[in-house]
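Structure in, sequence out. Go:
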């Protein structure tokens, strides 16, 4: 500091006293910390129901439910950190049941950065999808368009390319006003397992607010089929994620209308639960290629539905993480479709798949282990 500045500082010190400098130091420190750590931009709450099924020489089914909270922390450099905490949706206290994880989104580019091997891989898939986007969903409401994703730069990706046909519609609701629904139907893509082909496809639908800043509902169906081992085998993953209040109660989406229900119908949710007659483990190809393809496809389909620089990673990354835990042996839960339709009060005849007779409340928990004990290894 020069002598003139130093003299002025001493003058201010003599006039205001030591306590003034202490207070100012605290304020300056708080400002600096805020610039580094960021401002909390809000907390979002979601519930996820994820069902993984296999049919072949036997059957496998695992359904898991989780509630999670996402804290958005906004930084001065146009970056936002999303921090996740998972909760037990059936716990009255809503206690935390798994470790936190987080990632950062650059709002100016939509690119994601994440820590950890799995998270880094999923971030790379998200980033290559964002780089491939050539349509802005908000500008295509009321239209249908094509979108292809180049995944060849992604190390260890089970697929190099995936293409979608997208449709976006206006949805009018009493509770949230005008909303936007987007559906992505993928073209079949093929992987190789045991010297044979694995045919894969994913269908996804999202319900956003009018500005496509917030997600209220996401439904996705992934299916992989093969007869490379002499028997027709199918790996199927259905997942629904929806916004809730802080207590885990879903928002009222009962008046989304027939157009939205028709959009959901083409996603292809199962109308009833898979019947288990011979419980088996997931085959090796499902572990090695099937689950990985489902994770990648979910991340890609989420990003193309959004078609903007906002983080649908709040949905797709938790989905990818949940899939990692679903190779256990537990038969649980009713069909995802019936639970969603009953929980949100959708028009059952319009959605065109099942009748009201099989609908059960969305709050029904998983089957009790004592009623459905796991098979012995």
């Amino acid at each position: 500091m020069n002598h003139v500045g130093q003299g002025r500082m001493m003058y201010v010190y003599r006039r205001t006293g030591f306590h003034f400098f202490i207070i100012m130091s605290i304020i300056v420190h708080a400002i600096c910390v805020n610039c580094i750590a960021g401002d909390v931009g809000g907390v979002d709450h979601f519930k996820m129901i994820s069902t993984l099924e296999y049919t072949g020489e036997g059957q496998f089914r695992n359904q898991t439910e989780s509630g999670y909270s996402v804290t958005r922390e906004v930084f001065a450099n146009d970056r936002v950190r999303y921090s996740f905490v998972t909760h037990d949706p059936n716990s009255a206290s809503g206690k935390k049941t798994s470790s936190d994880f987080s990632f950062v989104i650059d709002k100016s580019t939509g690119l994601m950065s994440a820590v950890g091997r799995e998270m880094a891989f999923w971030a790379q898939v998200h980033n290559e999808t964002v780089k491939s986007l050539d349509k802005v969903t908000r500008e295509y409401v009321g239209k249908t368009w094509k979108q292809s994703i180049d995944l060849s730069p992604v190390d260890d990706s089970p697929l190099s390319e995936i293409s979608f046909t997208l449709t976006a519609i206006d949805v009018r609701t009493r509770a949230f006003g005008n909303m936007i629904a987007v559906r992505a139907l993928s073209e079949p893509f093929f992987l190789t397992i045991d010297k044979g082909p694995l045919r894969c496809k994913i269908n996804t639908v999202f319900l956003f607010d009018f500005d496509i800043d917030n997600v209220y509902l996401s439904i996705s169906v992934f299916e992989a089929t093969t007869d490379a081992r002499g028997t027709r085998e199918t790996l199927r993953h259905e997942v629904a994620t929806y916004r809730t209040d802080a207590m885990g109660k879903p928002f009222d989406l009962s008046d989304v209308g027939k157009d939205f229900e028709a959009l959901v119908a083409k996603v292809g949710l199962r109308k009833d639960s898979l019947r288990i007659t011979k419980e088996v483990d997931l085959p090796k190809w499902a572990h090695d290629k099937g689950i990985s393809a489902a994770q990648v496809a979910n991340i890609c389909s989420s990003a193309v539905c959004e078609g903007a620089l906002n983080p649908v990673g709040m949905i797709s990354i938790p989905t990818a993480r949940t899939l990692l835990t679903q190779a256990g042996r537990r038969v649980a839960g009713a069909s995802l479709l019936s639970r969603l339709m009953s929980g949100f009060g959708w028009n059952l005849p319009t959605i065109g798949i099942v009748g009201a007779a099989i609908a059960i409340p969305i709050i029904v928990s998983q089957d009790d282990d004592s009623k459905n004990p796991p098979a012995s290894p």
